[in-house]
## 1
Amino acid sequence: MAILSIQSNVITGYVGNAAARLPLQRLGFEVWALDTVTLSNHPAICPPTGQISTPEQILDLFNGIRSLGLLNKCVAVLGGYLGNAENGPALLHAVSRTRKENKRALFVCDPVMGDNGRIYVDGDIVSFYTNKAMSIADIMLPNAFEASLLTGISVTSVSTALQAIQNLRNRGPAIIIVTGVKAPDTSKLATLISFKDEVWQTLTPKVEIQSHGAGDLLSALFTGNYIQNKNPLTSVSNAIAGVYSVLKNAKKTDADTLSLTSVQETMLDPPETFKPERLK
């Protein structure tokens, strides 16, 4: 089984495809990493070198995969950071053509637009996700800020996250995961998942470090687990615990970036787990 991962890449550190590839491979998947952006490092570390791929370059690489006759082996397209809104149609083309070869292929959409009140994607990226991508996505994984952008609801609490989730569910995706939601206990963060008629939350302690790539890692861990077990609650629980173990290690080692190779065993079999609570 293969997963086509269309998102950014960094040469150093673990963001985008650099964060998704190893956990998905460890879970037993072939990973076709198609980079929308290639940078020397995450911009928060220092100004990077590199470039954003054009739609033509993305489509050229995708068409090369398609010409090999491999798309029937692709069980999911994982879409992440696009670099700019112009690359959006190339992602959707890849989803459409993949589904022609495998009708059961999932479209897992991580609408990477920004965080902490700041958009860091050029162009009308919000319109792309709300008007085009959302209606065909099986799974959406916005953070709280991105959920606010997608719905117009300011997601500043668990209660407002519930409102945003209902708005998103009404627009297509069968599974919604919202990360980084402020909890009543300010020492913790909430992750909410909605599927069928259920909504669950999981609370985890805040880990005060630079967490660039944590969302990309969670998306990959959830995707791999969900394809294997078809249980969204178990899958998100595994993903949350795996990400927490990576963040805790980065805090312990005082690292500037996440490190996956040194914690790959605990990432997949974390020592600490967190019990989800049903809200609806």
Note: The CA atoms of residues 151 and 167 lie 7 Å apart.
## 2
Amino acid sequence: MKTKNIAITYLTREISAIKSQFLIMVRNSRSRILMVSEMGKQGITKTGIDGLDKILGGGLPKGSVTLLTGPPGSGKTILALQFLINGICMFGEPGLLVLTEDIPKDIKKYIKSFDWQIESIEESRKLMFLDLTTAKMGILTKPRSNIFRSEAFDVRSIISITHNLIIKEEIKRLVIDSLSGIQINTENELSIQKDLLTLIYFLREFDCTALLITEPKGYNLSKYGVEEFLVDGIIKLSFQKIGENDWIRKIQILKLKGRVHSLKEYTFSINSRGIEILLT
């Protein structure tokens, strides 16, 4: 217990120090400091996905950070893209997609395979990309009006550039795809907790609703096994075998702070419109 209390005290001091440095950076760049009220007073952010808002009790808490976890092929990226695109088309809310493993060109091709009005979305310039992938691969690409790049992909650099984009572009929805591509200090368990706690702490301060994509590892819901304890909500996608050769997709809300929600698993399908959840 004594060791645990020391670790918590250390993390609290580190967060305070990082916060002070961050606020100085914001003032120096003449950016306004966003004040975030209590989550319950801010209302909800609707996903616009058939069935999902109902099982979420209306939508995600505005300003919250939610973990979206599931194995490869379970529909994580599709759900996250729908969350961003519905925000633009249905609610007029600009979105930012932070890519750590894919490139914007491939994601745009992926979007075009659905009936998501990609032309009007591109014209509106409300879907922004932060490309961290090409720098990792050592590829030099020309900047675009809605594609921003960074050669640094550690936690503090991502916090800084993300904050600047949120202010400049008035971003209201944020997706990081995925957490596993962010440079985390893995020297020891305390370092991992520190980096993830720092990232999630500041995402809550940015006045936007965030989805963080990850994959389960072993018995954990996430890569490092601590993310699920730090976020405000958890949406789990999975597969279930039916009969000898058939599989169906399942979605479950495992955590949603401040909300009463069901732990029931719901079947969902993926079609040309994206994800549709069966509530029966």
Note: Residues 13 and 19 are 10 Å apart (CA to CA).
## 3
Amino acid sequence: MRANRMREEGTLPEDPKPRENALSGSSQTISEQNRNDTADPPLSRPRILLLFFILGGALYLQTLGCPFVWDEYSVILGNAKAGAFDWDRLPELFRHRYFHLPGSLKNELPLDVQYYRPITVLFHGLSYKAFGPFFPAYHLESLFLHIGSALLLFSLFSTLSREHPACPNGEAIALAGALLFLVHPRNVETVSIIANQTGLLCTFFCLLSLCLWAKLLKGAGHSLILYCLSLLTLLLAMLSKETGYVVPLLHGLVFLLLGPKNKKNLLLLSGFFLLPGIPL
């Protein structure tokens, strides 16, 4: 009776249990937030960039001491001695075969190959103007091209896997795939030999073109600029090495994976398949 009267009058003290439960719940929430704050954050873009340069440097910096060998005397030093890299003869680079053999080297390199790789020849010309016959600089170029290709591959894989229901850990899978490409033993010869810069250039431009195409399909904005840049980089890949001519098939695969599959995107895709006719 007394308790009822005190409860009616409002003088009965409140039950401490609900307050204790509320306090315990809030303390649990605070502890969970603290655990989330102290959890290891995912790798940021600067850390990923640093990781790629550290691994790439650890693997390939030892190649800086390797001098020019075999056909590098023709495609770099031979072309330089023949004056192929003079700026007043720049238009001739696009009518110039890849292996230019001056008379002093014909006996050493009896080659008669009609490859058409003007962007590679131009790249070698710019390198020779900057570094002369200083071969470590050419090896650094190869290393940067390889690391750049691995980073582009990571970006492409991330774009393809982002928000995809079959890839809940798409970023981690993309990072693993790109790192595998970076350190794979199959690439040792390509990165170590300066003459193989033709393949490194082609790979870099191909992946850049695919990344731009994927961003366009994902609706990144500035679609016309992205499309023109994707076409341009694909053309540069084709003019770096013949392997670039098959890359439009990969553009088609990216289109099938990302969509949307409408008439506009189909028309844009057809441009990649028509592009190989320009160099030919």
Note: Confidence is low (pLDDT under 50) at residues 26-41, 101-111.
